[in-house]
Specification:
The protein is of the alpha+beta class and about 90 residues long. It is built from 3 helices and 5 strands, in the order H-H-E-E-E-E-E-H. Strands 1-2-5 form a 3-stranded antiparallel sheet. A two-stranded antiparallel ribbon has the order 3-4.
Amino acid sequence: MTKAELVSAIAKGAGLTKKQADAALKATVSALSSALKKGERVAVPGLGIFTVRTRAERKGRNPRTGAEIKIPARKVVVFKPAKDLRESVK
C-alpha cells in the first residue's frame, strides 16, 4: 500500500478530507518517532507495540573479501504485532 492509498483509506474510514488525513498520518508518525527517540515504549491498541532495543556489537564478514569485520552496537526499532492483528492476517 502506498502513502496515497493509506491516506485515502484513513480519510474514508474517519470521514476526513485527504488533506486532514495526511496531516493526521504525519502527526502520528512524528509522535511515534519522538517517543521512540526518547526510548519510550509505544503501544497502539489493535496494531501492536513499538520498542527500541540495543543490538550488541558483533563480528561479521565482508562478503567481497571474506575479511572479518566488527559490526558496532546500534539501536533498532522492534515491532510486536497485537494479537488481533496477528489473527486477522492468518
